[in-house]
């Protein structure tokens, strides 16, 4: 059975940390394809200012161009209503029911999984994969992982990756401060961010 993973996020902007996670996931999960899924209207970020979804989409396409195992989906950004993860996963399962689906997200999402809508339907539609992020202790992560696995009787896959302390919010902060961020993202993405004057305000 072929394996595909959806890597969801706002990607505002996509950076080298995201690519590091994606490449590690390809190998760790033995994936046939990894799909970047920029969010349109995620329920937990409705009040957060976001760069236009189609700009974020194009930046991801720039960052992943030439990598045959990466794909970029505009499914969520084309939906007008609030995007719920369980709906996205069920949609892709209906399109390709013979695929073993994975959903990749940060460990921060595991910590707040109780607040997600229809968690059981999410876990029935995929194998949930979480990667570590700065600020979380392994013991803390394992405790929450075991708790969720016990409640839903589903395995959570934890990718204990070498940490690259790069975040979109920190990149935006550096840009506002006039600092160099060239080394934090692919060159094409950086050039477009500068050209469009993104994140200056």
Task: Please tell me about this protein's structure.
The chain has 201 residues and is α/β, with parallel strands linked by helices. It has helices at residues 16-28, 53-64, 85-95, 107-111, 119-125, 138-152, 168-176, 187-196, and strands at 3-9, 33-38, 70-72, 100-106, 127-131, 157-159. It has a single domain, classed as HUPs (Rossmann fold, 3-Layer(aba) Sandwich), CATH 3.40.50.620. The protein contains eight helices and six strands. Strands 3-2-1-4-5-6 form a six-stranded parallel beta sheet, with helices on both faces. The longest helix is centred in the C-terminal third of the chain and has 15 residues, at 138-152. The protein is globular.
**Residue runs with pLDDT of under 50 for 5 or more positions:** none
Q: CA-to-CA gap between the ends?
A: 47 Å
Beta-strand share of residues: 15-25%
Query: What do we call the CATH homologous superfamily?
Result: HUPs
Helix content: 40-55%
How do the helices and strands follow one another from N- to C-terminus?
EHEHEHEHHEHEHH
What is the CATH C level class, in words? Answer: Alpha Beta
Enumerate the strands of the largest sheet in spatial order, edge to edge or round the barrel. Answer: 3-2-1-4-5-6
Structural class: alpha/beta
- Shape category: globular
CATH topology (fold) name:
Rossmann fold
Oligomer: single chain
Mean pLDDT comes to: 93
Major beta sheet summary: 6 strands, parallel
